[in-house]
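Figure caption, in words: inputs first, then the predicted bound structure.
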Amino acid sequence: MSEQTLSNLMHEDRRFEPPADLAADANVTEEAYARADADREAFWAEAAERLEWGRKWDQVLDWSNPPFAKWFVGGTINASVNCVDRHVAAGNGDKVALHWVGEPDDDTRDITYSQLKDEVSRAANALTELGVRKGDRVAIYMPMIPEVVVAMLACARLGAPHTVVFGGFSADALASRITDCEARVVITSDGGYRRGAASALKPAVDEAVEKTGDLVRNVLVVRRTGQDVEWHGREEGGRDVWWHDIVDSASAEHEPELHDSEHPLYVMYTSGTTGKPKGILHTTGGYLTGTSFTHWEVFDLKPETDVYWCTADVGWVTGHSYMVYGPLANGATQVMYEGTPEKGRWWKIVQDYKVTIFYTAPTAIRTFMKQGREIPDGYDMSSLRLLGSVGEPINPEAYVWYREVIGGDRCPVVDTWWQTETGQIMISPLPGVTAGKPGSAMKALPGIAADVVDDDAKSVGNGNGGYLVLKEPWPAMLRTLWGDDERFKETYWSRWPGLYFAGDGAKLDDDGDIWLLGRVDDVMNVSGHRLSTTEIESALVSHPKVAEAAVVGAADETTGQAVCAFVILRDSAGDGGEDIVEELRRHVAKEIGAIAKPRQIMVVPELPKTRSGKIMRRLLKDVAEHREVGDVTTLADSTVMDLIKSKETSAP
Ligand code: WT7
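Bound structure (WT7 present):
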């Protein structure tokens, strides 16, 4: 976002007061801020009391060895018990946990908490039979079907950290994650449905497993589409096992073990500023406290009456925190949908299931805006009472459209800022307290300390911009990067001692409310998904025709940012041939996944570099965003930009 748009934004003076009925009955009220300020640890201890523990903790927070935090030290807990058994024991076994909606019309399943408990127990027994033990890592590569939730909870039950890899990632991306966390078992399905057709997943797993040598012992496969798959069964000494063969026949009784509060729950890989994805480690007690409490607080969840729907894919952190662990720990009834956004389908689901709380990403909202309000207007969405947004800054137009068209002008919008690393929502309005400003995530939640600082770590004060930092540890914070404590310290804690550097720019307005401005590092945000410029550059240069590549995230009306690449071809490649751009786009999709495909690739003769050889992406961004090119005086060769621009004007 440019300075100009930002100052326009901050003169945004529309305010949306919380609805009176919501405010009168809100789960969390204004007093929470002061209470948390007075005693942060007592505040989080009270949040932890909402869960079922085995042994209670001796110490709320151990911060004696920063930045390595330990929360609820000495406590024991089982995340799966908190997400299922506890609700069954409380007499809510018949309550629907998941209204699952498949992509093919009329393909639906309602799953109650007691059915979920039985299924999780069966899966835990089956995984045990496959030799999975506490501490072993399990990779999960699945579509949005109930079994993915079952698989995650079964792993949590055993204390076997899962690593869920988004089904849109390539075999290579899956292989590198399996290798990094040394997963011995992969859970997948034959395929899933996308835009009306069955699309295969198992072949990518086969390819990934081949690449990882003899690391993977078993591949557990759910039959979803019934398509043909290549099979290496156990009978012939192979590794493949059908889910229905071993899970369906397993016992529904499973005695769960209580795990240490700091026992690893999962690893989620996310893009960093280098080519190698980072394995974000989340542990059990603090993570479950942070996600379940904020889910109840920010969405004002009333588990008895609400129907909650988070549209995120389970392959991202939003799916982990706000589809699996937070809502299930709270005993919520929720919708889970297999497909991607299609014209009226989402609104039909809202209508059919009487969804009350809806959580999605700005990119989806902007797509629906473009299609026109006639589509949502055709459905009865009067059940909705609260709307959430996540993943990227929401522009005021999209916020107001979301509020008016989807929310019937009565639902508050909570714009929630957080990250894979933070595990839980950190900055957000409180729906019963805050008068929302379109475009601002407002304030740090009670118990969270955020600030905006300058290069010297000084608070910028109201009316100014700088870097977003977090000043105190929080329960769901990442504990480290899998196997790489040094990179953990270096990435988040080295810029200013004692402060967590989020990587986002932000501004405080005159009221002290926070406006997020996007990343300040080499990380792009495309449709709310995090991509690394360096990772895509390495994918491009791994193509035999490419000598050099530079990637920038350029502003895009729908996706927030879009991937734009500039490549120099090798001499031997000539002009690369007619379809070079398409060939390179396909190559990136194969190396990383379709989400990383550049929107645009320009073949250029040179790249703008400083005298020390650093690529000046800022100038390329100017080209990609069709702006006047900025200051070129630090370039080693200042004529390079003219060459690049002449390419642009001659392009079709
Ligand atoms: C980055 C984190 C949090 C789950 C989804 C993305 C951006 C996230 C917002 C928001 C402005 C936001 C930030 C952040 N971001 N939410 N409400 N307003 N920016 O998780 O892939 O870890 O990405 O997404 O830049 O650093 P992620």
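Residues 89 and 114 are 9 Å apart (CA to CA).
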